[in-house]
Design goal:
Strands 1, 2, 9, 10 and 11 form a five-stranded antiparallel beta sheet that branches. A four-stranded antiparallel beta sheet has the order 3-4-7-8, with no helix packed on it. A two-stranded antiparallel sheet has the order 5-6. The chain is of the alpha+beta class. About 45% of the residues lie in helices and about 20% in strands.
Length: about 300
């Protein structure tokens, strides 16, 4: 029991927090240098997941990926440190709950809620990289449906209704697509609905996330291939719910914290008058007794 208490205390130490933050800064600096012109090593993370990436790209390029493995270890330690430190503060706050009103006690939990929320967000991202199911790129052409695996849902491209550059101020962008908009028909047995998919407007359907990867045509007129098509990234990500819940929890904690600051903060109405100490050439408060200097005649 003493050993467990010792380990718990050390892992929740604020000194460990400072050390981890400094190490994270140094590691991310090294990572920035290693990423220069080598982003292609990390791009497959979104397609194959963390496990297969470690076995292939990760261990084969340790000179450029070692910082990433160190980053994972440091983030794991920071999550443990934050959890233990926050839990200790929550236990201490509950022990002193008699000193606060019920409403004030609730607001006192605000920073702890934000700390727990950050842990939930990081765990969500880890689940995304570990357990996300990423399908091969799916290409849709008008009228040909695509079936989501394990469901009876069919997705069909109706048309590519993009927004084009209309003016002639920038000749290089003339008649080019500014905002692609793919109109899709989703049918699920007897239910049918139309949705619009865009680069910044993904679609959630039956637990899958559907994202626009590429499209054709990219110009209103001209070009070799005028047939409409869209390339989709389809992934089933169990971590999405976690980090969305973490973001919601963090927002609640932040609102509570700002509310407490606005309601319970005691304004400091004290006014401090200053005068110039011409002898010492500096500003001093009124209650300051200036040093006397004997000047020889």
């Amino acid at each position: 029991m003493k050993f467990f208490s010792f380990v718990w205390h050390k892992l929740g130490s604020i000194h460990l927090t400072v050390v981890l933050c400094l190490l994270l800064t140094a590691d991310l600096t090294v990572g920035y240098i290693c990423l220069n012109r080598r982003t292609f090593l990390f791009s497959p993370l979104n397609d194959i997941g963390l496990g297969p990436w470690i076995k292939t790209y990760g261990v084969s390029n340790l000179a450029h990926t070692l910082w990433f493995f160190i980053l994972l270890i440091l983030l794991a330690l920071l999550c443990i440190n934050t959890f233990i430190c926050t839990t200790d503060r929550v236990v201490s706050l509950m022990a002193k709950r008699a000193n606060f009103s019920r409403r004030r006690l609730i607001f006192k939990f605000a920073p702890h809620i934000m700390h727990y929320a950050m842990i939930v967000i990081l765990v969500g991202y880890l689940c995304s990289y570990l357990f996300a199911q990423v399908l091969d790129t799916r290409t849709l052409i008008p009228g040909v449906p695509f079936a989501l695996p394990g469901t009876n849902t069919r997705i069909t491209l109706i048309q590519l209704d993009s927004v084009y550059y209309q003016t002639d101020r920038l000749p290089a962008f003339e008649k080019r697509v500014l905002r692609p908009r793919a109109k899709l028909l989703i049918s699920d047995g007897e239910h049918r609905r139309s949705v619009v998919l865009g680069c910044m407007r993904p679609l959630r359907c039956k637990g899958y996330g559907i994202f626009l990867k590429d499209f054709e045509p990219k110009m209103k007129e001209g070009g070799m291939n005028r047939r409409e098509r869209v390339d989709l990234i389809v992934r089933k990500d169990p971590g999405v719910g976690l980090y969305l819940a973490g973001l919601l929890l963090f927002t609640i904690g932040l609102v509570m914290y700002l509310t407490e600051w606005a309601i319970y903060r005691k304004p400091d109405n004290r006014k401090i008058s200053l005068y110039i100490d011409t002898v010492n050439n500096e500003l001093q408060p009124v209650n300051y007794e200036p040093r006397t200097v004997n000047r020889e005649p």
